[in-house]
Write a structure and sequence with these properties.
Order of helices and strands: EEHHHEHEHEHEH
Number of strands: 6
Strand content: 5-15%
């Protein structure tokens, strides 16, 4: 089992923590991680774009001029795609972009992502993360003490002071164990988690 250092909010090492290999020491499956990231991004797409085809544009019911003898090319409608105000040839319509993924595969992808962060030394465990007030400056001091810039902060419970303090920092995202996903783990270069959050992750995914 891998051991990681446990830090306090001032960046001082206060102990060690043993990680469960069933979650943080699996064989990294890059294909599954890629599949999970693609599925996550696809499922975020709204798919609500819409444009009108020539059959949906209003007007254009009358033939603009007679078929022969005018010198113009023959035209059947003023709402054909080549006309200004005409319909779109292959107009986009609302569609569902969602990609389904097996629950087991999702869990395996998340474990692979977490393991890759441990192997790269990019998992930082805090003994606790508490702020007395909503203050971005205080949260930034914690990140500075840990020497972290771009981070996914995993909390063991809903803490509004921490969440709202971190919200103004564009390179930081807070999440909880029940909303942890592969995409966020891979997007942010460092995962900062409380000791209790790590225990909860092991409990849920082991």
């Amino acid at each position: 089992m891998a051991n990681v250092s446990v830090f306090d909010m001032q960046g001082n090492e206060v102990g060690k923590m043993e990680l469960n290999d069933a979650v943080f020491g699996v064989e990294v499956n890059e294909n599954l991680v890629h599949e999970a990231v693609v599925a996550h991004l696809a499922n975020k797409r709204q798919g609500t774009q819409k444009a009108k085809t020539r059959s949906e544009v209003s007007g254009g019911g009358r033939k603009p001029w007679r078929q022969k003898g005018t010198g113009h090319a023959r035209q059947g409608s003023t709402r054909a795609p080549q006309w200004t105000g005409g319909g779109v040839v292959f107009a986009p319509v609302p569609r569902d972009y969602s990609v389904s993924m097996n629950k087991k595969a999702k869990r395996a992808a998340l474990k692979s992502a977490l393991t890759s962060r441990v192997e790269a030394g990019k998992l930082i465990v805090l003994d606790e993360l508490k702020l007395d007030a909503i203050k971005t400056k205080d949260f930034a001091k914690v990140l500075s003490a840990l020497k972290v810039e771009k981070a996914l902060v995993v909390l063991d419970k809903l803490d509004e002071n921490v969440i709202l303090s971190a919200r103004n920092i564009p390179t930081v995202k807070t999440t909880q164990v029940n909303t942890l996903n592969t995409y966020d783990v891979m997007k942010y270069s460092t995962v900062v988690a409380t000791k209790q959050a790590v225990s909860n992750i092991e409990e849920v995914y082991a």
